[in-house]
Design brief:
Distance between the termini: 28 Å
Order of helices and strands: EEEEEHHEEEEE
Structural class: alpha/beta
Shape: globular
Largest sheet: 3 strands, mixed
Bound molecules: iron/sulfur cluster
Strand order of the largest sheet: 1-9-10
């Protein structure tokens, strides 16, 4: 089963009230491409696009879960779940093929201005350090 996604990044075009994400897929990545994340703050949701930027919304329109978003707008309890592609292999929930094996993840970074301000709060270092 794919993990549920809770997100509080209210400045993102994909944000749906009720702390849900209306994107079709989200990419969770290391903030710095060449550096393995060791703490939550070094991860990010790369799919973040700022709601104030109309062009970014148009640009991300092909990555919208339209059906889920439409039902989600009408029903605050409806679970809208994007697929997750994650490259954070240093996380204990990471699985071969860029999948996340956690039951659910939480994306944080309220009032974020750019994707680097967001985090996968569910990240836990694989080696437990
Ligand atoms: S920051 Fe990521 S998880 Fe949150 S609403 Fe935007 S695309 Fe979805
Ligand atoms: S919990 Fe770990 S594997 Fe899952 S999306 Fe977050 S960083 Fe990636």
């Amino acid at each position: 089963m794919q993990p549920s996604v809770k997100c509080i990044v209210n400045t993102c075009t994909h944000y749906l009230y009720g702390d849900r994400c209306g994107a079709g897929n989200i990419d969770i990545m290391h903030e710095e491409e060449t550096k393995m994340s060791e703490i939550v703050e070094q991860t990010m949701c790369k799919t973040f696009s700022h709601a104030r930027n109309l062009l970014s919304y148009v640009g991300s329109a092909d990555n919208v879960n339209w059906t889920g978003s439409a039902i989600g707008l009408l029903n605050p309890d409806y679970q809208v779940t994007p697929t997750i592609a994650c490259t954070v292999a240093s996380c204990k929930y990471w699985g071969e093929g860029a999948i996340c094996i956690a039951e659910g993840i939480e994306v944080t970074g309220a009032n974020s201005n750019e994707c680097q301000d967001t985090n996968c709060q569910t990240f836990v270092r694989r080696d437990g350090a």
